[in-house]
Design brief:
- The protein is 47% helix and 17% strand.
- By secondary structure, the protein is an alpha/beta fold.
- Strands 8-13-16-1-17 form a five-stranded parallel β-sheet.
- It is elongated, with a radius of gyration of 48 Å.
- The two termini are 42 Å apart.
Length: 794
C-alpha cells in the first residue's frame, strides 16, 4: 500500500524541470534580431503609463510599480516617445540682476529658441559697457567738446576778472600768491615804491617813519575794501566753474546715453517683448546714472549686465525627458554657487552663479526618478512634493546655514509644468501610500508591472528582445537560440511560478554578461547554451560559501543531520538562506518528545523567543490538525515539545509545519521516520499540504547534503503537489532522479506524507475509528493511554 502511495507521488525526471525548446524562438542567434524598446506581456500597466504620460491633469504624476532590472529607464523613454504628445511650448528663461533688490535675481522669459541669442547679445553688451563705452568717452569726439566747454568757461572767468585787475592797479594794490602752511593763497598787498609789501613790512615802514600813519591807514582800508570785492568776485567765478562742471557732466551723460541707446535699440528691435524692453531700460538707466563715475571700479560690468541662461529650447525640439540617477536636493532644484573673495572668509554670489536643477530642465516634459533614491536624500522628497503641489520651482542656496558671511540670494520662483515618473517596488509604494498623506493626491496614476511574464511565445519574444538589446548596447557577442533558451529557463526558475518567467531582467542580464565573457575568453563568435550554464554555476559558486560551510560541518559531524536510517521523533525539515539574490536550501533537523501531561504541544522556538509570527501561526494550526485527525472523545492529555535542533537564529515561516506534524505523530506513536527523506510544506487544519516558497532550492539543498555523504538510492524530498509545476531543478539533480538515485515526491495530504515517511498506511477513519494497524489508529490509541494516565493521577 505504501509503495502505491510512493509511486503515485514520485515525480519523473521530466517533471522536475521545464525545458525551453530553442526551435520555438524563431531565430538562430540574436544577431538576426532588431532590438525593440517594448514591454511585452504587461498591457494594463503600459496602458496606465501611457494615460499618465499623456494627461496633464493636476496630480496625474505616475508611480511605476514593479518594473525592475535592465533597461527599465530606456523602456519608459520608449513609451514616452511612442506616446508622441505634442510638446508644451516652454519659454526660454534666464536670471538677470535685480537693480531694485540685488539679493533677489529676477527671471526673464523669452520665446522658445530666443534665449541663447539674447544671452549672446547681452554678453556682447556687457563687454561694450566694460570696454567700448569708456574708450568712446575718452575719444576725440567727446574730449574736443569738453575742451570747448572749458575754453568758454575760462573766457567767462577772464571777463569777470579783468575789470577787477584794472581797479586793483589803479588803487596801488597787487594780487600776490602767498605761502600759507602748505598751500598757496592769493592775497591783496599794497605796492610801495613799485614793490608789493606784506603787513609786517608795511608796519616796519610805519615805525621807521617812512610811512605816515595816515598813509598806513589809507592803504589798509583799500586792502580791506578790495578783499571784500575779491570775495564777491570769487563767488561769481565759482558759479561759472560750477556751471562748467555741470555742463561737462551733462555732455558726458549725453554722449554716453546716445552711444548706449544706439546699442540697446538694436537689441530691443531683435527681442521685442515687454519683459526684455523693461530690463534693457533698467540696464541703460543703471549704466548711465550709476556706473559712469569714479568709485565704481569694483563693479564687474561684464557680469552685472550678462544674463544667466538656465533653460533654452529649440523651437522644433521634443518635450524634455530627464532621468536623474542621483536626486540630491541640489541636483533636483539647483543651487547658488559662491566664490571666495580676496578676504578668504567672505563668499560672494550673484545671479550668474545660479545653477538650475532637474525639475526645471524637465519643465514641459518628464522627470524620471527612482523612489528609493529620492527618499534617502535629505530634503529632496519634501521639495519635490511642494513643487508638484504649488507648481512653483524655487532654487535654494548651497549653504542653507548661511555661513561665511555672504548675502543669501533668493532667486525669483519659476512656474513649472513637469510630469514626474517615480519608479519603485511594491513595498515602497505601500509605505508612501500609508505614511505620506500628500502622496495619493500627487501620484494618482499607478502603472503596476508584474514581476513575471507569461511563459509563452510573447514571453520568449520579450527575452529574445532584451538579450539582443543587451548585446547591442554592451557590445557583447550574439547569443544562440540555445543560449537564449537557457536564459529563459533561468527566468522560469527565478519566477518560481507555474507558467511564468521573471521580468527582473537585471538578473538575467547579469548572467548573460558573464556567459558572453566566458564565450569571448574562449574565442567563440557566438554565446552558446553551455556558456550560460557555466555562467550560472560560476555565480552560484561565488556566493555559496555559507552552503559549503554547512556541508563541511555536516560531514565533520559538527552539525548532525541524518540522511540514512530511521529515527523516532526526528525528521529532516528544509530551510533556506540567501546570499544577495541567490537562495540556498539546507536541511534542518526537527525533533519532538511527548509524554503524559496537560501542556499540549510546546513550540520551543517560541518559548526561547526565536519563533516568528508566521511560524507560530503554523504551529498553532498543527495543534488544530491534531484535534481534527485524532477525533478523540476526551481532551488531549499529553505534553509535547518540538524544536529545530542546532538552530540559534530566528525561525519564521510555516513551510516546516507539515514536517513538524509528522515528527509529532512519530513521537506520539513511537513509529520511526525515514531519515533518508526530507519534507517541506505547510498544512491547514484539514490536513491539506499547502505550497511554499523556494521549492527548487530546498530540494537541491537536501540533494547536496546527501551527495556529500553518498547516495543510497532511497533518498528524496517530499514537496507540496501545488509546487510541482514550479520545479526548475539543476541538471545534476534531474539526472539523479532519472537514474533512480534521488526521488521527489509531490504530496497533497498529510496522510500521503505519513505513509511515505513511516512506510505504513496513515489510515482511513470510519465512525471516528481508524484502520487497525494504521499510523493514526496507533496515534489515537496512544493519546487515549495518556488521557487514562492523566485521569488516574487526578
Amino acid at each position: 500500500m505504501t509503495e502505491d502511495v510512493q509511486d503515485a507521488c514520485r515525480l519523473s525526471a521530466e517533471a522536475c524541470r521545464w525545458h525551453c525548446d530553442p526551435t520555438l524562438l524563431g531565430f538562430a542567434s540574436t544577431g538576426e534580431l532588431t532590438p525593440q524598446g517594448k514591454i511585452l506581456g504587461q498591457p494594463d500597466a503600459v496602458e496606465a503609463l501611457r494615460y499618465g504620460l499623456d494627461s496633464r491633469a493636476q496630480g496625474n504624476n505616475i508611480f511605476v510599480r514593479g518594473l525592475s532590472g535592465f533597461g527599465r529607464t530606456e523602456l519608459i523613454h520608449q513609451i514616452i516617445e511612442e506616446t508622441a504628445r505634442t510638446p508644451i511650448r516652454v519659454n526660454d528663461r534666464c536670471y538677470v540682476h535685480n537693480f531694485a533688490a540685488p539679493d533677489q535675481p529676477r527671471v526673464l522669459s523669452l520665446p522658445t529658441g530666443m534665449g541663447k541669442p539674447f544671452s549672446q547679445a547681452m554678453k556682447s553688451f556687457s563687454l561694450f559697457a566694460q570696454e567700448e563705452l569708456p574708450e568712446y568717452l575718452n575719444s576725440d569726439v567727446v574730449t574736443t567738446r569738453q575742451k570747448q566747454l572749458l575754453a568758454m568757461t575760462q573766457e567767462k572767468i577772464q571777463q569777470i576778472g579783468s575789470p577787477f585787475d584794472e581797479e586793483l592797479r589803479a588803487a596801488g594794490l597787487a594780487m600776490v600768491p602767498m605761502q600759507v602752511g602748505q598751500n598757496m593763497v592769493p592775497m591783496i598787498l599794497p605796492v610801495v615804491e613799485g614793490k608789493p609789501v606784506n603787513y609786517e613790512e608795511l608796519q616796519k615802514l610805519r615805525l621807521e617813519g617812512k610811512l605816515s600813519e595816515t598813509d598806513f591807514s589809507a592803504l589798509m582800508e583799500k586792502v580791506a575794501e578790495f578783499e571784500k570785492k575779491f570775495a564777491e568776485l570769487g563767488h561769481s567765478i565759482a558759479q561759472v566753474q560750477s556751471e562748467n562742471q555741470q555742463a561737462q557732466q551733462n555732455l558726458y551723460v549725453e554722449e554716453a546715453r546716445k552711444f548706449v541707446e544706439t546699442r540697446v535699440s538694436a537689441i530691443k528691435r531683435r527681442f521685442n517683448t515687454p519683459e526684455v524692453q523693461g530690463f534693457l531700460d533698467e540696464v541703460t538707466d543703471d549704466l548711465i546714472t550709476r556706473r559712469l563715475w569714479a568709485g565704481q571700479e569694483d563693479i564687474d560690468l561684464s557680469r552685472l549686465y550678462q544674463v544667466n541662461l538656465i533653460t533654452c529650447h529649440d523651437a522644433d525640439a521634443p518635450c524634455p525627458v530627464v532621468s536623474l540617477s542621483n536626486p540630491t536636493l541640489a541636483n533636483l532644484v539647483g543651487k547658488v554657487d559662491r566664490e571666495v573673495t580676496t578676504n578668504a572668509m567672505v563668499l560672494r554670489s550673484d545671479h550668474m552663479m545660479i545653477k538650475p536643477g532637474a525639475l526645471l530642465e524637465a519643465d514641459g516634459g518628464y522627470l524620471i526618478l527612482e523612489a528609493q533614491d529620492i527618499l534617502t536624500e535629505p530634503g529632496a522628497w519634501a521639495t519635490l512634493l511642494r513643487t508638484l503641489k504649488t507648481g512653483m520651482y524655487e532654487i535654494f542656496n548651497a549653504d542653507p546655514l548661511g555661513l561665511w558671511g555672504t548675502v543669501q540670494l533668493k532667486p525669483e520662483p519659476i512656474k513649472v509644468d513637469v510630469k514626474v515618473v517615480l519608479v519603485g517596488d511594491p513595498d515602497t509604494y505601500q509605505m508612501l501610500d500609508y505614511y505620506e498623506p500628500r502622496f495619493a493626491g500627487l501620484f494618482k496614476i499607478l502603472a503596476d508591472f508584474s514581476d513575471t511574464l507569461p511563459r509563452d511565445s510573447e514571453g520568449f519574444s520579450a527575452y529574445g528582445n532584451v538579450i539582443a538589446r543587451l548585446a547591442q548596447r554592451d557590445d557583447l557577442l550574439p547569443f544562440s537560440a540555445g543560449a537564449v533558451a537557457r536564459l529563459i529557463e533561468q527566468g522560469a526558475r527565478i519566477s518560481a511560478q507555474q507558467g511564468q518567467l521573471t521580468s527582473q531582467f537585471g538578473r538575467i542580464a547579469d548572467i548573460a554578461r558573464e556567459a558572453a565573457f566566458i564565450a569571448a575568453k574562449s574565442g567563440q563568435i557566438v554565446v552558446e547554451a553551455d556558456d550560460v550554464i557555466h555562467g550560472i554555476q560560476r555565480s552560484r559558486r561565488r556566493a555559496e560559501l555559507p552552503a559549503r560551510r554547512f556541508r563541511r560541518l555536516m560531514a565533520e559531524g559538527t552539525l548532525r543531520v541524518d540522511v540514512q536510517g530511521t529515527e523516532v521523533g526526528q525528521i529532516n525539515g528544509l530551510a533556506v538562506t540567501s546570499a544577495g539574490p541567490l537562495v540556498y536550501g539546507f536541511p534542518s533537523r526537527i525533533t519532538a518528545s511527548i509524554g503524559p501531561g496537560s501542556a499540549g504541544a510546546i513550540n520551543i522556538e517560541r518559548e526561547s523567543d526565536l519563533s516568528g509570527s508566521v511560524h507560530t501561526k503554523g504551529f498553532l494550526i498543527l495543534t488544530g490538525l491534531l484535534r481534527y485527525l485524532l477525533k478523540l472523545r476526551h481532551p488531549m492529555a499529553f505534553s509535547a515539545s518540538l524544536a529545530f535542533e542546532q538552530t540559534y537564529g530566528g525561525i519564521d515561516g510555516d513551510s516546516a509545519s507539515g514536517a513538524e506534524f509528522c515528527c509529532l505523530i512519530s513521537a506520539l506513536t513511537e513509529l520511526p521516520i525515514r531519515q533518508d527523506l526530507a519534507m517541506t510544506g505547510a498544512i491547514d487544519q484539514k490536513g491539506n499540504i499547502l505550497p511554499i516558497g523556494a521549492v527548487s532550492e530546498k530540494v537541491e539543498g537536501f540533494f547536496d547534503s546527501c551527495q556529500g555523504v553518498g547516495f543510497t538510492g532511497t533518498q528524496g524530498v517530499l514537496i507540496p503537489r501545488a509546487n510541482a509545476a514550479e520545479l526548475m531543478l539543476r541538471d545534476d539533480v534531474v539526472e539523479a532522479v532519472r537514474a533512480g538515485e534521488f526521488s521527489v515526491y509531490a504530496i497533497e495530504t498529510i496522510h500521503q506524507a505519513l505513509a511515505i515517511l513511516m512506510n505504513r498506511t496513515a489510515g482511513t477513519c470510519t465512525e471516528d475509528e481508524y484502520d487497525t494497524g494504521s499510523i493514526l489508529a496507533r496515534a489515537q490509541h496512544r493519546a487515549h493511554e495518556y488521557w487514562e494516565i492523566a485521569r488516574s493521577h487526578q
